[in-house]
From TrEMBL:
Matching InterPro entries: Aldolase-II_Adducin_sf, Aldolase_II/adducin_N, Aldolase_II/adducin_N_sf
Name used for this protein in its record: Class II aldolase/adducin family protein
UniProt cross-references to Gene3D superfamilies, sorted A to Z: Class II aldolase/adducin N-terminal domain
Pfam families named in the record: Aldolase_II (PF00596)
Domain Class II aldolase/adducin N-terminal: 27-211
Family matches, as NCBIfam families: PRK07044.1
SMART domains in the cross-refs: Aldolase_II (SM01007)
Lineage: Bacteria, Pseudomonadati, Pseudomonadota, Alphaproteobacteria, Acetobacterales
Protein family according to the UniProt entry: Belongs to the aldolase class II family.
Amino acid sequence: MLENAGKVLRISPMRERVSPAEWQARIDCAASYRLVAHYGMADMMANHISVRVPGEDNAFLINPYGMMYEEITASSLIKVDLSGAILDKPDYGDFDFGINRAGYVIHSAIHGAKHELDCVIHTHTWPGMAVSSLQCGLLPLTQTAMRFTNISYHDYEGVVLNLDEQERLIRNLGDNNAMILRNHGLLTVGRTVGEAFNALHRLELSCKAQLAAMACNTPLVQVPQPVLDATFQNYQPNVRRPYGVMEWPALLRMLDRLDPSYAE
């Protein structure tokens, strides 16, 4: 049960209905929703974070459309297949939550095509939306932004409701772990939840720093291309430990101190 502003949202527990591996995936997925909310990157109940169900390559977990990010728990997540069919969900009491169409189209495209990836995160933050509307896109102005020197872009085609856009989404993402959806927002992916969240957090910081620098209306310092290339390479998986390995357990400890209900 979740208690929020005096109202009780009754959610039946799912732990005994799923495998231990799926339950852990649910905990990590719910944690990522709480963290997105904690860092001010949520858009009320809009947007989505999805996590592939271990051992079920064609199934993933996604948020029920109607719950705030700060409410999401491991039990509240809905399990769907790549066709959008709901495979399992809890009893929500007075509510019969389902999934959002646009979220399904974006997330199922990536889970269906990128089997090496387990997590997809999409946001509508004001810095992300602002940079997505700039013709220049994301600029490598800071060390953090240089991690995304070769970031992907996908042109705006309207609300993502049509399945025929999936092929273009996948083609534009390519082998990158981050993509700017033009006039829309940000998207990151990862082999783990911690990896995808780390990319989102750093991409969000890069957007904020760029907007702050551009707002000063003064010439920007340009970094030489060889330095940009070398810095970008230093961020690549083959030269460093995977993102999230150290950060994710620390973030979970922080959540446990703040509000451990995400793991219910």
